[in-house]
Amino acid sequence: MASKTVDFKAYVVPNSQEPGYTSIYRNIKNKDSLLPVDFADVKTMYDVFWSSSRAENLGAGIVSIMTAAAQSDTEREAIIKRNWPVGIYSINRPEWGITERALATQSLYSVALYDTLGESSMEYILNHSEAAILVCSVDKVHKLLSNKHSLPLLKVIVCMDSVHSDGSASYIPPPFNVNSVGILKRWAESLDIKFYDFKQVEQIGLESKIPHYPPKPSDIYTLMYTSGTTGNPKGAVSTHFSYASASVCCNHGIPIKTDGMVYISYLPLAHCYGRNSENFTTLAGGIIGYFCGDITKILDDCQALQPTYFPGVPRLLMRFYDLISANTINAPGFKGMVCRMAIDQKIQNMHNNKGLSHFVWDRLIFNKIKALFGGKLELVGSGSAPLEPRVMDFFRVVLCCQLLEGYGMTETSAIGSMQPDGDLTSGNIGVLTYGMEARLRDVPEMKYFSTDKPCGRGELCIRGPSIFSGYFKDQEKTDEALIGDGWLATGDICRMNIDGTITIIDRKKNIFKLSQGEYLAPEKIENVLAKDSLSLQTFVHGYSSKNYPVAIIVPNPDTFIPWVQKLELSNNAEIKQMNFEQLCRNKEVKKEFLDRMTKVSKAAKLQGFETIKAVHLEHVPFDIEENKLLTPTLKLKRFDAAERYKDVIHNLYDEF
């Protein structure tokens, strides 16, 4: 029987393999040049942004008020030379984008803040970046003024919610009003902080006649602070050329019609994913609409805006999945039966290359689901973590559009790889984005090698024009990340698949050695356990004095409780009356759960030393605000989790 020919989706650079590395891979569309020639003139975000009178006036106004606030000739000279930071602190809204464009007209750069950082990180970022001016929404002013004692460099606040000099409000969100904003202004003045509103600064800029001061490609575009799992955030320095390149590469690589493109801006602009999505839409000449500020109403916003592109993250997409599946495949009776039949048939057609549409089922069922998102979606993106294959298939058929997974990070200006147009597979992050190239390097301590068969494995190293310049004021961390010749070591362990796609299989950091000398990668085990429908959140931990790991798992109540109800246990009647917390504490339930996780681990072919031997079922989910076990990008804070569950972990080892 002849072997099946694999459609290879990447380009391997000839003679590029070096000892300890795979060959260099590129997108098949840019074999010889990393950047497309038709955007040769786009080298800064000034080139990307459409100029507008509001942005021009605001940029000139910021320079004017900072010049006026200067307290010495040295400060005044530094302001005139440009290339200084301006903080931005707000949810996504038009003024955020106007401020970004304004800074580009004057060679200034942004430093974004967001609420989930916490007060200590906010103070650290403002002081570390040396930002003396902050543009923010009115609801952030109180927090800033309350912490002025910890913000010695802050001199000027520009409030996005404008109040005209005659006292009339152009728009102030409740519960604020003209009087309360007046109190804030007087409070700021008492702290020796100049307080302006947006309209004031625009008018000052209009009257100043300060001309544009365009940036160079090598000038800083933004300082984006990454939320580390330990310690203070790191300030990633990205140049204008980095983000302009990312916008250009997305314009070539994302399969969506740019003519009539409509994008809903809800992903935080303080993060690279949201920022690059908005920039790429701007370059494409698309329409940007902003969500109302309440993520629980995002579908209402979609119905009003009718976006063609929706960039998603697994956490939100899973909420949509739960909502839609409850009313389709999990619906009772005849309705559920018909929906399951329709979805199964569409998925089968999809995998047989018959497309994502169905003449009958779309009219009966799926057009109504499409209408929940506005009815005009052409592409849904997913990044930050993998989606289960069944969920990806589900969305593709119920929304009748492509859902593509991608990969990027702050240090790559949000781009790296993405599934190509028409790719209906799952379990991979696609191929290198237009403009990027990558290779894998050996990680001997984890037994990953570029020479592994059938596919090379190792740490993903990426190179391209969108790579960041380094970490602000942190040469040590910069040298760890940028390993020479333009290569960024991502820390992600990947496999180059036989079709040229990339799959993330592990994480280089967060490994520890067990007592028998074996290295353990907890994220690898967590990813396996998290794929089970009973698991909502997982934390795997171990000690070098022990020869096996243990786990803290938050079960998914929607699947866990029905599963428990079906178990044949000694005290079934009593268990059926228990609530979620009580079920998590029940020893029999815990034993059954552990047995299931052992089977899951065995099916995933985990080694014996990688299989958890004890589990604690936690009824309280890991979160950002309350127990603070997640970063703002929903990564687990391992050190904090280990501290929080220190006694629990000791008890788990004692129990086994």
UniProtKB/TrEMBL annotation:
Keyword ATP-binding: yes
Entries under InterPro entries matching the protein: AMP-binding_CS (IPR020845), AMP-dep_synth/lig_dom (IPR000873), ANL_N_sf (IPR042099)
SUPFAM superfamilies (UniProt xref): Acetyl-CoA synthetase-like (SSF56801)
Pfam families according to UniProt: AMP-binding
Stretches assigned to the AMP-dependent synthetase/ligase domain: 80-472
Signal peptide range in chain numbering: none
Membrane spanning stretches: none
Record key words, sorted: ATP-binding, Nucleotide-binding
Cellular compartments per GO CC: endoplasmic reticulum; membrane
GO molecular function: ATP binding; long-chain fatty acid-CoA ligase activity
The protein, known as: AMP-dependent synthetase/ligase domain-containing protein
